[in-house]
Amino acid sequence: MEELMLGIGITAIAGALATVAGAAEDTESDIGSQGDPNSQVQLAPQMGYIHRIFNKAVSGEPPAYGLWCALGAGLAWALMAMQLNPILALILGSALAVFVQGVYCVTAYLGRTASLAKFEQPVYIDILKSVTTVTMAHAFIAIFTTVTMCHLMNTALGHPFPLPLLGLVWGIALGAAGSATGNPFYGKERQYQNYDFGAGTPISASGDIVRYAEAGDRSSLDNGWFTSKLGGPASGVCFGLIVFLELWRTVLFEEWGNGWGAIIAGVILVLIFTAIDRYIEVYARKTFGPYGAPEAVEEETSTEAST
Fold first, then answer.
1. What's the gap between Cα 102 and its chain centre?
2. Is there a contact between 46 and 212 (Cβ–Cβ < 8 Å)?
3. Residue 262: CB partners within 8 Å, gap ≥ 6?
4. C-alpha to C-alpha distance for 5 and 211, rounded to whole angstroms
5. Per-residue model confidence as pLDDT tens digits over 205-224
6. Which residue in 76, 79, 128 sits closest to 98, CA to CA?
7. What is the CA radius of gyration of the chain?
């Protein structure tokens, strides 16, 4: 019973750490326009829209965070092998990984912007100075919480994978959760607030992102503030649930049927979430319907008014 209670407690702590990691990861990636929004930020100057949005996309978020979390976990593992205090090792490993992330940010921004020189997109030094440090701060939170979560799995739950491999696996999962959950909120809504919601992005509007804020040009820090309101927390809840439910089914059902109990519980959870997703999708389509052309909407509105 004590081992079960310990497992449930570690599961709850790991879920909380994963929630913080997911929120920080999505906010960091949106500030740097990595993932879903990146293509439009890169395309904007080619269409004649000069902007001050930071563009640091080195790769997709899953491989990027797989690298950074594996690097942080590997360094922490090496430091702990040298008899360094585990908490200090986790902090130092994550901090060193963040410096690598910062180098990638700088080189990616300078390289991508330099490739747009013929379209007259300048390199803004103030953007490079102010935004890079903010992305590094958010990346540190995401990496540190993820590596700490992996350390708990390894030491308290006795996970057979070594710490660097756990960092790689869960770093990829972290990037995938933020990319799939939070990035569309920024890339499909924030960047195209000057178009009707739900209208989609026609080819003629490619690159026509919102470039002006309430006062002056819009910067990536504005996008970070916007993401932290909904997209970041949604990504945090997503990744937190993934970690919590994964560990929960393992802790409770692994002893049943020589491990088959945990597998069956996982399959049941997937089926339950599939049914919920399908219900929400059908409900949204029936409630809001397809997006119609402005003329059709006006005719429908006038018809309803006349009746």
1. 17
2. no
3. 249, 250, 252, 253, 254, 256
4. 52
5. 777 888 887 778 888 888 88
6. 76
7. 22
